[in-house]
Write a structure and sequence with these properties.
The chain is an alpha+beta fold. Helices cover about 35% and strands about 30% of the residues. The chain is elongated, with a radius of gyration of 23 Å.
Length: about 180
């Protein structure tokens, strides 16, 4: 279950830490940087539904043929099979839109983690945020400050998590220095 992110290149003006996983964002008069990290999906929920319906039609069609020829127990087993498959596909579809959004604006760092119907949102003052790897280089990145903490990087390949942590540190450092958060592209 690997994932990708918005891969718009953000040229930071610093040759040491170019922002590759984030992008410029301008909301009204506020400018900043966004990181949108999503689960990689090989099939859209609508396509998944069409696939499931076609399997149901095929399975129940075959079971109806057996029903007509006297094998009455095929139909209940086809129903149980399609119910189990439907439950499994529902779980997959429910988590198809899982994501993490990190927004650094002029006065706040907002982190939103959506998993199924549950959304966790944490806001930080950028001056007080610490960016740390959880338990090693390939673990999730922990953002903490003001008594709150949240882990990010679930939808980034483990080898790219250090890049994400570097980008976050660079952007927070730039904010603390009073530098602009937008860049000329």
């Amino acid at each position: 279950m690997l994932a990708t992110s918005s891969m718009a290149v953000w040229h930071s003006g610093s040759a040491t830490t170019p922002i590759r996983l984030g992008r410029d964002a301008k909301v009204g008069a506020e400018s900043g940087i966004d990181w949108l990290l999503r689960r990689t999906n090989s099939i859209a929920p609508r396509q998944l539904l069409a696939f499931y319906v076609s399997l149901c039609v095929l399975s129940f069609g075959i079971a109806a043929g057996f029903w007509v020829h006297g094998a009455r127990m095929v139909m209940p087993f086809a129903g149980i099979e399609m119910l189990a498959l439907g439950c499994a596909l529902w779980v997959v579809a429910r988590h198809a839109a899982d994501s993490e959004r990190i927004e650094l604006r002029n006065d706040r760092l907002t982190v939103e983690h959506a998993s199924g119907s549950h959304v966790e949102r944490v806001e930080f003052q950028p001056a007080w945020v610490r960016v740390e790897p959880g338990h090693g280089d390939r673990s999730l990145i922990e953002l903490s400050g003001q008594g709150r903490r949240i882990a990010v990087g679930r939808f980034v390949r483990p080898e790219q998590r250090s890049q994400l942590a570097s980008e976050l540190r660079w952007a927070l450092g730039r904010w603390r220095q009073g530098g602009t958060l937008t860049a000329s592209m």
